[in-house]
Amino acid sequence: xxxxxxxxxxxxxxxxxxxxxxxxxxxxxxxxxxxxxxxxxxxxxxxxxxxxxxxxxxxxxxxxxxxxxxxxxxxxxxxxxxxxxxxxxxxxxxxxxxxxxxxxxxxxxxxxxxxxxxxxxxxxxxxxxxxxxxxxxxxxxxxxxxxxxxxxxxxxxxxxxxxxxxxxxxxxxxxxxxxxxxxxxxxxxxxxxxxxxxxxxxxxxxxxxxxxxxxxxxxxxxxxxxxxxxxxxxxxxxxxxxxxxxxxxxxxx
Length: 253
Fold this sequence. Notes:
The protein has 253 residues and is of the alpha/beta class. It contains 7 helices and 12 strands. The chain has helices at residues 3-8, 24-37, 69-80, 101-110, 166-173, 183-191, 218-229; strands at residues 15-20, 42-46, 49-51, 61-63, 82-86, 88-89, 95-97, 115-119, 144-150, 205-211, 239-244, 249-252. A hairpin with a 5-residue loop joins strand 6 (88-89) and strand 7 (95-97). Helix 6 (183-191) packs across helix 7 (218-229).
C-alpha cells in the first residue's frame, strides 16, 4: 500500500481534487493505483487538460465523445478497476480535454466508480504556480483538496521559464520578477486568499503537499516553508505534507 495513500486518504473519501505544480499528475495516478490495488473501482480524470496517459499510468482511456461511453466505462472498470475519463482527445493527439464538475457528479452517481481522483488545474509541468482567474476547477463534492508545490523551485528566479503565471506569483507574494524564490514566498502564496488553497470547497479537507523532499536538503526546505507559514496571515491548510511522490515517502506536520 502506498505510504502517501495511507497518509492522505480516509475510508469515506470519494472525490480527491489535486491542484498546483510539481507532481500533480504523478500523484493522481499513484492514488488511483492504490485504490485499484484495494479493489476499489476508481476513475482518474481532469477538469482542465492533461497529457494522454501511458499504459503504465492507466488501465484505459474512455471518452465521452465515443459511442457507447457508459458501456465502455463499465467494461473497463469491471475488468481493470481503473479508467481515465475525458471529454475527448484534442486534435493535437497528445492531450485530453477534461470533463465538467457536473459530469464528475454524474460519474459518481451513475457509474460503477466508487472513487474519483481529479487533476483540477494546469501548471505547464512547472513546480510552482499561482491560480488564474478561472482556476482551479474543483467540484463542490470534493472530499480532499491537495495543493502541490515542487521544492526544487526554491532558489530559482521568479521568471516565466520557472514559474507558471509568474506575474501573479509576484503580486501575491511581494517578490519582484527575477527575485529568488524562498520558503517564505511559498508560505505567503500558500496562505494568500488567491493562492494555493484557492477553490478549496468549504467542507473539503485541505492539504498543502511539499513534493520532492528526496532532493538534497528537501526535507529541511519543507520545514522552512512550514515554519515561515506560522508568521504569515491567511487560512492554514488542515495539514502540511512533506513528500516524495516519486519515492512514495510522506510525512505529516
